[in-house]
Amino acid sequence: MDASHVSRHPVFCTVVPPHLLDKIARSEQLRRADAAQRTLEQDALLRTRRSVTTLRGIAPAVGTPVSDAPRRTVYDAQHRTRLPGKKVRAEGAEPTGDATVNRAYAGLGATYELFLKGFGRHSIDDSGLALDASVHYGQDYNNAFWDGQQMVFGDGDGDVFLDFTVSIDVIGHELTHGVTQYTANLEYHGQSGALNESMSDVFGSLIKQYSLDQTAQDADWLIGAGLLGPDVSGVALRSMKAPGTAYDDDELGKDPQPATMDDYVKTSQDNGGVHINSGIPNHAFYLLATELGGKAWERAGRIWYDTLTGGELASDADFKDFARLSVAAAVARYGDGGAEHQALQKAWSAVGLG
User: Fold this and answer.
1) Dist CA 138 CA 82 (whole Å)
2) Looking at residues 55-69, what average pLDDT do you find?
3) Residue 309 DSSP class
4) Which among 32, 9, 8 has a CA at the least distance from the CA of 21?
5) Is pTM beyond 0.85 here?
6) Which residues are identified as catalytic?
7) 214: Cβ contacts below 8 Å, ≥ 6 apart
């Protein structure tokens, strides 16, 4: 798509899905319910300002030199909803006395570094896009989101959810929505929407693994570990290793993610279950990465990145389309007789997409 097909209203992508907030909003604990309801209302307001489909922004002029260094700016929304807020830390500045600001700054940097050193990509748009983030958004805001231009983090209610900068994979997850926005442009509903969410989970997990220098075997494969409050029965928002096991709580209910196509969830909620059915491609990636071993971003991540950015993945692609193109990407990079091709076929077969 060229610059003449520019959308000024890209999709609104949150890390906590609306179906989960809706459960909390029905809590008998009024403080919990009120915080969740305010978050839902704010998310709905923002969502209506954006189209269902994410479209790319204007491409920079060809030949413009791109630096290998990130350009980060963190703002303090001061518990308001007007963005971006007060500028509190710019690129290269010393850490502030606010741990939330510093975590956001570090997370932006870790995301930039993984995409640059792992895949040769210069920022979200591959042209050095500045990385902006606002923290302390709203009152007890239980979410984090990419709005097509910048990252935004709530502080959580301190009860069900903690500060949304505590999980580096959440930061990576949301910024990867930007990468998808500038590449495959996956529509945010049904299976293409679930692929959109899965891309963010995959690269969010890889960013965490890269920052910790972990192998696929050492990683926890959790999205949002440390984000749930101490009284919540759960370990994270999602598990790529074992979809459906991240939480089982009286308020949140049981994690609804399926691991295979046998348990695919047909629903009209959450744009057709984009945060739910993403468990299937998530699990396929986990199986591929652990079968290959070593650092997951080096081979498994490379195949996913090639598929996402290769130009063949349609905006309305379904799981089968992605599986087919990922196999082609693996063959193109590693050959058809190698461990990568075999492990990928085995992974897709295991989730019912062989």
Assistant:
1) 9
2) 61
3) H
4) 32
5) yes
6) 174, 275
7) 208, 295
